[in-house]
Amino acid sequence: MRCLVTGATGYIGGRLAPRLLEAGHAVRCLSRSAGRLRDVPWAGQVEVVEGDLSDPATLPAAFAGVDVAYFLVHSLGQHDFERIDREAARNFATAARAAGVTRIVYLGGPEPPADEHPSAHLRSRAEVARILLDSGVPTAVLRAPVIIGSGSASFEMLRYLTERLPVMVTPRWVKNRIQPIAVRDVLRYLIGAATLPAEVNRGFDIGGTDVLTYLEMMRRYARVAGLHRRVILPLRPLSPWLSAHWVGAVTPVPNAIARPLVGSLIHEAFAHEHDIARYIPDGGLLGFDEAVALALGKVRDANVETRWSNAVGGDAAAEPLLSDPDWSGGNIYVDERTREVAAPPRALWRVIEGVGGENGWYSFPLAWSVRGWLDRLVGGVGLRRGRRDRDHLLVGEALDWWRVEEIEPGRLLRLRAEMRVPGRAWLEMSAEPGPDGTSVYRQRAIFVPRGLAGHAYWAGVLPFHGVIFSGMARNIANRATR
Fold first, then answer.
1. How many other CB atoms are there within 10 angstroms of residue 327's CB atom?
2. Which 3 state secondary structure label does DSSP give 358?
3. How does 365-387 read in b/e, with b if 16+ C-beta sit within 10 Å?
4. What pLDDT digit, counting tens, does each position of 39-87 carry?
5. Dihedral through CA 34, CA 40, CA 46, CA 47, nearest 10?
6. If you write DSSP's letter for every residue of 127-184 in order, what string do you get?
7. Which of 144, 340, 416, 420 has the fewest CB atoms in 10 Å of its CB?
8. What is the mean pLDDT of residues 256-268?
9. Predicted confidence (pLDDT) per residue in 308-346, tens digit
10. Is 386:357 a contact under the CB 8 Å cutoff?
């Protein structure tokens, strides 16, 4: 069958597309920017169509000739995510029906009991499910609770909370029951749902083999990870708002995403039925401990396929940097550094491509750390997103508070800032051949201010840039030489 995958640059979509290929299906991916999928290992095996679910005029080409369409987009972290997802679902449903799609598959969240007031996150998931089920196209809604897999936001929350806090005071929702599911089981259900009978138009609860409280999940995680037993003290007064800030302070997940995720944990989330087994055999569902062990193995081997941060946030500066910075009419600031390096370009490139994450930024670590904390305080992503792979980068993936905008292997790395600043910022690093087997390192920080606040911001940070960026250029050159 021909399968359309929306959200292919995200956590689940980026894993589903290659597995659909392995299952023998033809795959088309819908992306706002085809370049975001340029460097993934399976790029040459799929068709990529540029389009946006918020713009119906861009969708007919993506849906033409499609048998199965996967709705895997989610605007979590954006200010008005309920409205954005509602409009995206309506446009998706209309385009699927017009194109004669025979099956829609949607990965949603658990439905809280009718007598509860659902969180905005779960309310939005349920609304999208209703729109797709009412589309006139047979739809399978898979309702998954917490997904355990390397790189998932839920797993990163669990991992960092447990590893960093041997003693913690927690909100009362840690005693709510949850039925976590391994990401490989989610993917198996998604692939199997493509071949459901035409008369199936309904939702299915999916979950793993264990029903646990979040408190039990943290303690069992600690045991699997070889940590000492965690002391956890649930405290009633901690509100969801305070809980989200607590999660945001300890984990890489920013407050904008932590708030709706924590809001969902207030509700118990376990399967009330297992009807999916009538159509897709269980095939050995993974238990919680096994799922954690597999995820940790991927993290420790630096073999994380996709991460929650793959998707671009709504407040990211999406406009690419033009090749000629003078386009702005002079309203641009540039800090440029050049150094000769007594090493070949390939050695210099290894250092450039290894920047960020655990390797740091090669200059004044305290200043970078403080700037990261300040960004978190104002609702930004900070530095703790790290990197997916310790040696190699792909276009479109997150790197601390940057997004990889362009890579020319062996020559150029361009990063776009996703920190909270009054303007748009980029950082470029390049390796060029020099005489007699040496190389030249070029580094360029570019800032396009937005209004008076932007100009004031650049003036305020300029003295620090003199120290940070000069030290960065010097240390990168020295490391390449060593």
1. 10
2. helix
3. eeebeebbeebbeeebbbbbbbb
4. 899 999 999 999 999 999 999 999 999 999 999 998 776 778 889 999 9
5. 10
6. HHHHHHHTSSS-EEEEE--SEESTT-HHHHHHHHHHHH-SEEEEEGGGGSEE--EEHH
7. 340
8. 70
9. 777 654 433 334 444 444 433 446 888 999 999 999 999
10. yes
Strands 139-143 and 103-108: parallel
User: Tokens standing for 430?
Assistant: 């390049």
Amino acid at 60: P
Tokens representing residue 311 in the block: 């998707």
DSSP strands (E only) in 330-396: 333-341
Q: How far apart are CA 444 and CA 453, in angstroms?
A: 22
The DSSP element (H or E) to which 423 belongs, if any, is strand 423-433
b/e per residue 163-202 (b: at least 16 CB within 10 A): bebeebebbebbebebbbbbbbbbbbbbbbbbebeeeebe
Residue among 258, 77, 291 at smallest CA distance from 171: 258
Nearest alpha carbon to residue 292 among 110, 147, 176: 147
Q: What gap in Å lies between CA 400 and CA 375, rounded to an integer?
A: 11
Torsion angle of the four alpha carbons 200, 206, 209, 212, in this order, in degrees rounded to the nearest 10: -150
User: Looking up tokens 């790290």, which residue turns up?
Assistant: 386
Query: Helix %, strand %, coil % for the chain, to 5?
Result: 40, 20, 40
Angle of the 255-265 helix axis to the 240-250 helix axis, nearest 10: 130
CB-CB contact of 135 with 99 (8 Å): no
d(CA 431, CA 443) in angstroms, rounded, equals 9
Dihedral (CA of 24, 25, 26, 32) sign: negative
Residue 53 CB contacts under 8 Å (≥ 6 apart), including other chains? 6, 30, 59, 73, 87, 88, 91, 92
What share of the chain in percent tops pLDDT 70? 90
CA distance 459 to 375: 18
Structure tokens at 52: 């946006």
